[in-house]
């Protein structure tokens, strides 16, 4: 019933009535109502997509334009300088915080390259520098807990390693994306792969595949086998985790990843199935401590670096940038022999006295025929005692200077004050404190002999045997101190070493290093031919050799001057202060030296094929002050014929082991043979040429050996000079209370014990 009125109303509708049409929008289309308004039309979807695409394209071009390829980061370019022994194969040390040695792609085994591609980016050579698909997949796997993955191509990883850093930020990823695309346009695939393999981290502090190859398999990257290359590629995914030596519990995981790498190589056609079947998992070597600066390494690195800088080969700042492969002249067997000899003859002999705590040792050994430094001893350990005793120049050389005076005498055909030619047979007055006589009389200098001993009339040869200061101070005056210094320079003493033009040079007041002294003695051993020493055989960087300075030999002093000096130094070995050299079992020539108060003792000597200088020095470890060695090493007095000579003999014997002993081939000065009988008459002491030996000024019982008739007891030269003694000046000599002289070339150098 209730519906009837409506039916009635409908039936009563006026003729011609029609339903109202739906509302239209501005474009004449029906307006959507209800839930339909929430559903986007296809036009809206298409428009949105177009807008997004335009934004993305615009953003891409803006990003591409705004993000430049930056300069490489410092860590990515830093490399070690690698030092090798003379064989060019045995690594001596690495210098630098970053253990990296860049190599070219040609220096990396091909299968190792393929292994890296298989592990990290199999489509590297035929796909884009970036892989959006891989990035999306990596993000999905990370979100769903399947493992954190980067999704980066090798190009992107290289960009991260070389240009950016390892931080995980959106900004870094954006930069990485754009730089990778630009890089792919600017560099070849091979260049990018080479950079990637040189910058990737492989564990064991190894940056780059060359350092990794050395760290895990002790070989260069071009020698890697397929199995080894695949193992290094495995490490790229988790360097520390997959080191099966450090983490044996992860062996199964490492093998699984290794198999994945090899299977990928087969799939890509880089490895045959047959070779894959025979490839066995390699066993990496044990981790080795870094070749640091401990032991002698630091001293050698320091000496080599100084040599490169001083000779304008590589300056210090450039060298610090790293990347140099330096083959030194140091021969490992000889270096080991030097270390062993010093340990046995010096450090194993130390006691518990205060003087024992002052003991330092240093030395250098040169091949006279080539000038190559074959061994260098800088001290007990660079990490414990950083001062390089082989190259330090703050200790006087003592009587090891005397041979230079004699060589100068022969070179210049020098004569005594009374006109006699100086030869090994020449007789001098060897009395203690004998005044040095110049052309105008005494010069005001009367050097003491060791233990104040008088030798009377003595030949030049015997005076060298016993290191008689009185004789060689007079000879320095006879030759002329300036001429002596010219000879010393010619033998190889550098200009940086100060040479005094005074007779006291005979006592060895010159301060030089063992290496510098080894240079001069090597010239004597080489018959007077000077060859500048070198510490470097070869230097390469980026697979190219650096040029080294020419080291042409030159006749520094006449052969007869050098050879005659050698002959009297042989006498020192046969019956003088250097007799300990006989323990080497080698034909040798040598000279000892001990400076004032026994603060240092020297032994300088050579065989026909090896020149070596050893010094034992006294230094306070706390203050750096030079100290006396009296009482050290279990002896009352340390001298050149003691510990230094023992080290020399022990080292020389070991260094030349397995080679034949050879004699010196000498061309001597006329009259060079020493007399068989000692002279009975003292030589003249005044400057009057007409004097005969019988006219030598006599001494009265009241006079001391140092007193000339004009001297008073108060003018007797003291045994030890004071640090405050005035330096020589020009003009006539003026006697000082200490016995030295101002202007006459005096200055007491102290007692030299030979």
Summarize this structure briefly.
The protein is of the alpha+beta class and 754 residues long.
**Helix content, binned percent:** 25-40%
Radius of gyration: 42 Å
Specify the biggest β-sheet: 5 strands, mixed
Query: What's the number of extended β-strand segments?
Result: 18
For the residues shown, what is the average pLDDT?
Answer: 81
Q: In terms of quaternary structure, what is this?
A: single chain
**Strand order across the largest sheet:** 2-1-3-11-12
Q: Label the overall shape.
A: elongated
Q: Total helix count?
A: 22
Counting helices, strands and paired strands, the structural category is alpha+beta
Q: Approximately what portion of the residues adopt beta-strand conformation?
A: 5-15%
Low-confidence stretches: 1-11, 63-67, 145-150, 685-749
Distance between the termini: 148 Å
List key phrases describing it.
754 residues; alpha+beta; 22 helices; 33% helix; disordered N terminus
Give a verbal description of the structure.
The chain has 754 residues and is of the alpha+beta class. It is built from 22 helices and 18 strands. The strands form six sheets. The chain has a five-stranded mixed sheet with strand order 2-1-3-11-12, with helices on one face. Helix 6 (154-162) packs across helix 7 (170-186) and helix 6 (154-162) packs across helix 8 (189-199). It is elongated and about 155 Å long. 48% of the residues are buried. Residues 1-11, 63-67, 145-150 and 685-749 have low confidence and may be disordered.
Topology:
Layout lengths: L3 H8 L30 H25 L7 H4 L3 E4 L6 E5 L14 H11 L11 H12 L10 H9 L7 H17 L2 H11 L9 H9 L8 H10 L15 H17 L5 H6 L18 H14 L5 H5 L4 E4 L3 H14 L13 E9 L4 E6 L24 H10 L15 E3 L7 E2 L2 E2 L14 E3 H6 L3 H11 L1 H11 L22 H12 L3 E2 L5 E6 L2 E2 L8 E2 L3 H17 L13 E6 L5 E8 L2 E9 L24 H13 L78 E2 L5 E2 L12
Parallel strand pairs: 1-3
Antiparallel strand pairs: 1-2, 3-11, 4-5, 4-16, 6-9, 7-8, 10-13, 11-12, 14-15, 15-16, 17-18
Helix pairs in contact: 4-10, 4-11, 6-7, 6-8, 10-11, 15-22, 16-18, 16-19, 16-21, 18-19
